[in-house]
Amino acid sequence: MSVYLDNAATSFPKPESVYQAVEYAMRQVGASPGRGGYQRSLEASRIMFRAREAVAGLFSIPDSSRIIFTHNATGALNLALHGTLLPGDHVITTSMEHNSLMRPLYSLRDAGLELTIVQAGPDGMVNPDDIHSALRPNTRMIAVSHVSNVCGAIQPIGRIAAICHEAGAMFLVDAAQSAGYLKIDVVSEGIDLLAAPGHKGLLGPPGTGLLYVAPHLRLKPILEGGTGTDSTSLEQPLTMPEGFETGTLNLPGIAGLKAGIDFILEKGIEALFQHERNLLEQAQSGLRPIPGLTIYGPEESSLRGSLLSFTITGVDSSLLAAELDQGFDIAVRAGLHCAPLAHDTLGTLPGGTLRLSPGWSTTSEEIAFFSDAVVQCARKINL
After folding, report:
1. How far is residue 330 from each of residues 1, 53, 226, 232, 335, measured CA to CA in Å?
2. Are residues 117 and 162 in the same domain?
3. Which of 267, 284, 316 is the C-terminal boundary of a domain?
4. pTM higher than 0.90
């Protein structure tokens, strides 16, 4: 049995319709959107429009032209930060952030940005009152991950958004671990900027991502070049979304992303998430008898996303992951998960944790196989 439990990094396998959409775009369309008036280019543009509409439907975005396609969530976060912030602005973030958000913030801090990192609790949860206490007159943005990629803590983004807008600041949400798992309504939840990858919970191919930009925000491009529009101008156009989708887009990937979102809408996002939550509860039950086991994140499973992170006393997490891979063909993630401050918060430095993250196709039998394998590997390592 081969078991893939690293969907928090990249979802696998994809629904069959995703592979078919990618192949159609590559084999039957071939052309670039917005780069010609012939039939193949027009079909490429139609694929782009339908994909944008699918994203808008999933996140309850009223105007799909406010969606910018990027290569990944990292690109979306960089555009959101570098495209809005100036030296002297103050940004509030948390100790649970991924390096995709933290590193560009540190880079901007070196250029004059003021940065406050609010400490989360030992369960990975952020207290909105602590964010409120960190407000300054020049606070321009609050930037948080919706769901921790380390321990799965689901942050109260509605309460944080209210604080943000009371201060007249922008609210940026990193939805890398919530897009496709949790229902997100950008309007009712007060999200000004939403960054998401296509290759995780949205079930699309790698090389895809997106940034939603609220209508009242003005963004500046961070990449300049060909857009297929306003070709007479030697200055980068600011029209949404074309002015921010510089160069040739990943049409096969975006076609696959659209198919992934269609699959989610067809199956029901709540039903898919409940399936994965049931599997995690099964895994937690199977792992609990292991001596020295510690599970990280909120105790209440309803406050955790679609992943489980743990350590076993005396067992190196990376060694355990290697044993699971080589001895049982089980793929899991071990280490710091690109979020060192989160591990500092949880007390899991320097070795990190072992993380399992099931997907839409994971079965109960696979989880039982995983749990039994962990028991065997832990016993072997501790001999």
Report:
1. 8, 37, 44, 54, 16
2. yes
3. 267
4. yes
